[in-house]
């Protein structure tokens, strides 16, 4: 195994001066050196082999003992020094102080084909940031992160990646529902990969500690390696940097809304400085279209992180980042302008995104109303978002009366009231009228719509079925879903059973509808 190691983060930024591994407050440092725990009987469950090659692994590497040892934390790659990153964060709207990598350990950075990647083991044992946690992860949450991050990538949603999923051979005690019924579960480690794992919270912790020197170093480092087109650091560059982070965050959220992804825990420590989806915990996919839905049981009361609130929360989180960067800029106006711009840009891009989902490409100022009416209709009776938009592309320009029957597969109820049917027929008349203005043929429009409306997403119950099998040592379904989700926009007839509504048994089953943070 020959990797092109290229360490920058630990070279450029201050390390915690304490070398022992015990829980503590870390001062004036961006990371602490720490070694992964040794696992008793590691076993590779799955590898994202195509992605592995883009990191510079050879195909033969992936089957080697050395690879397993690397991704389970049992051996350290020569001349590398693993570390946990320091960051803070606002959790559920409140400043939580130091959080940090409590159960993630960075191995090293690779530079391959001019692209930088940091490799990180999630669930590799305690670090100075573990607080009361054990630093470990269980198989179920690891499968969820592994499958979903790769699925998101293939959907075209900016995200961290996953290289491998391994069992540790150790048992981990978890109280999954927080109801006093703790049980042992199989421990697992995902090797996840990102150009960098720096978060909004990485800046917030330094600003909170008034460590402006390190804050500046971190901003300069981030710009140099990941926003290098902005040029040499200066006040103006920091402003541009913030503007670009806002833009990328906005793009990410628009993608989430397009595919019906709900992150579930949009705390500022879970916001990547690169605008990538990061930290897959109690996330979920919309089945019935519903702005009020959240998968996270911990958030069930206030639903802060519900589907429809994700854009507002992204903006709220950007305010926190702006506050953290303020000491480097000392001028609130340009930051406020950028935050205001976010709102305007969101309206424009959100409209654009919805128009593309509907196959509307010509200019028309009535589209906003058409989309509003559509969203109202989608809420009338439980309507599967993925099936609705996918089926919609089959409609022909001159067949408004066919609309309802084409999309009725998306309704969860067996019978739909006359009133609701009328509302849909009314909408379809408007929609088909609007389609008359489009230059594209029906076939061309269908093709374009199918590039933005996925056929297959990782429905919550699908992940749970893969988990149930994997816990019995059967990984076939995990592999099937992994493979299918590499081409989410293509019709794959052999996977027809996955283009279907959530089965009724899954409606209230743990893991299929609501999830706790326990992982
Ligand atoms: P999350 O909500 O999963 O992003 O985690 C919030 C914070 O809790 C982060 O600092 C994590 O590193 C930490 N954390 C979560 N689970 C554990 C665990 N099992 N052991 C140690 N720290 C954890
Ligand atoms: Mg996190």
Distance between the termini: 32 Å
Tell me the strand order in the biggest sheet.
Answer: 2-8-9-7-6
Radius of gyration: 24 Å
Total number of distinct structural domains: 4
> Total strand count, please?
11
Estimated helix fraction: 25-40%
Give the mean pLDDT. Answer: 97
Low-confidence stretches: none
Structural class of the secondary elements? Answer: alpha+beta
What is the overall shape? Answer: globular
Order of helices and strands: HEEHHEEEEEHEEHHHEEHHHHHHHHH
What is the beta-strand fraction?
A: 5-15%
Give structural notes.
Helix 5 (200-208) crosses helix 8, helix 7 (235-259) packs antiparallel against helix 8 and helix 8 (310-329) packs antiparallel against helix 9. The protein is globular and about 70 Å long. With 519 residues, it is of the alpha+beta class. The strands form 4 sheets. Strands 2-8-9-7-6 form a 5-stranded antiparallel sheet. A two-stranded antiparallel sheet has the order 1-3. The protein is built from 16 helices and 11 strands. The chain folds into 4 domains: 9-197, no CATH class; 201-356, no CATH class; 362-439, no CATH class; 460-506, no CATH class. Adenosine monophosphate (AMP) is lined by residues 99-103, 129-130, 133-136, 265, 269-270, 279, 281, 517. GO terms for molecular function: AMPylase activity; ATP binding; magnesium ion binding; manganese ion binding. This is Protein nucleotidyltransferase YdiU. Its cofactor is Mg(2+); Mn(2+). Its EC number is 2.7.7.-, 2.7.7.108. Pfam families: SelO.
